[in-house]
Amino acid sequence: MSLLPSHSPKIFIRNPVLVRASAGSSSSPLQTPPCFVDGAKHCWPDHVELRFAYPSTDYPKLIKKAPVELVYNDINDPIIPWPDEQFEEGEVTTIGSSHGWVASLMHGVGILRLHDDLNPVASDANPKCISLPPLVSLPHCQTQIVTNVSLSSLSPEEEDCVVAVKFMRPQLSYCRPSAQGNSKWFNIRIANPCFFSSRLMFSKKHNMFRIPGAGGQLIASWDLCKDEHTPKFQELRYHFLPEPTEAEREVMDTCLTSEHMVESQSTGETFLVKCFRQTVDGIAVLQTKAVMVFRVTPKGNAVYTQDIGDLTIFISKAEAFCVRASSFPGVSPNHVYILDVMEISFFKLADSSITTLTERIMAPYFFPPQNIEY
C-alpha cells in the first residue's frame, strides 16, 4: 500500500456558486465555498484589491479591499524571516486565522487584533477590527512566535466566544473579547514538551480546545470555556498502519512531520492528519510528500483510512476544517487540500496521489464556508 504520491485532481480557480448550508433546505443560509486569497493588486496607498481562488468557475467574482499589512506580512513566512530582534515597536504581522477572522500581532506592545477584512462576505465599507488586551509572557516563555489561533465560536463578537492562542514552546493563552473593559488574558504553562510546537483546535463536539502532541501519541484537552486550566489527556492507539516500502521510508525519514486535528460538523467524526513535508531545493520552504489520515474514536483508537467518503479536509496556516464536498461544486471528495506560503497541494486518499502547485501565497489561510447575509 503506497503512502507516497504520484498525481491528482481539480485546481482552485479564480472566480466564485453560492450554495445552501444544508442541501435541499431552502431555509438554510447561502454560503460561500472554501476559498483563499490568491493575490492582491495595489490600488490604494495602504490597501490592496483582493483576488480569491475558488474550487469552481461558477462562483460569482467577489472584489474586496484589505489593508496591505494583512496580505503581505505573515510572521510564519520562511521566505521573509522575522527574527525577534528585527521587529520595530508597532510593526504588525499576521499570526493565524479561525472562522474567517485573521489575527494580527502588533509587536513591541503585544496587542493582538482580530480582523474580518479577508473574509469574502465581510463588509468592505465597514470592516471589523477587534483589539484584545496586551499579551503577557509567562516567565521563561515568549509571545512573539505563534503556532496558531483558535476561536470557540464563529465570531469573536459572540458573548461566550473564547479566543485561544498557542505560542511556540510552553505558553497557551486565552481571553473573552465580549468581556469589553474586563477582557483579559489567562495564561497556561504546558508541562509536556511534546505539545510545544503543536497546533490548537476547538472541538465543538467536546466543547474543548485540543492539541495533538508531536508524533500523535497524545491529545491534550482544555475546557477553557469553564476556565479549567488542568488538561485531560487521551492516549492514541494506532490500527491498520500501512507498511511503507524502503524507498518510502527513506523519504519519510527526511521529512518534518506535523499533526492536525479536524472535526466534521456534518458527520461528527474526528480526524488526525499527519503531513510529511520536505525542504525544497535546499531552502527553508517545505513541500508535502505524504499524508496519512486517521479516524479517532472516543476510546482513543486512531484507525488509518483511505476513505473519508464525501468529506474534504482543508489544512493551512488557519485552523483546519472539513466540509461535505457534494455541497460545494468543484470540491473533490475524499481529499486533503493543503495551503502554505509556497504550496497548494491536493492529496487524494484513495491512491495517495498528490498534485502540488509551487506558487507564492501571500495570505496562506483557507477560509471555511461563510454564511451570506442580505
TrEMBL record:
Superkingdom assignment: Eukaryota
Domain KIB1-4 beta-propeller: 91-343
Name this polypeptide is given: KIB1-4 beta-propeller domain-containing protein
Native organism: Brassica oleracea var. oleracea
Lineage: Eukaryota, Viridiplantae, Streptophyta, Embryophyta, Tracheophyta
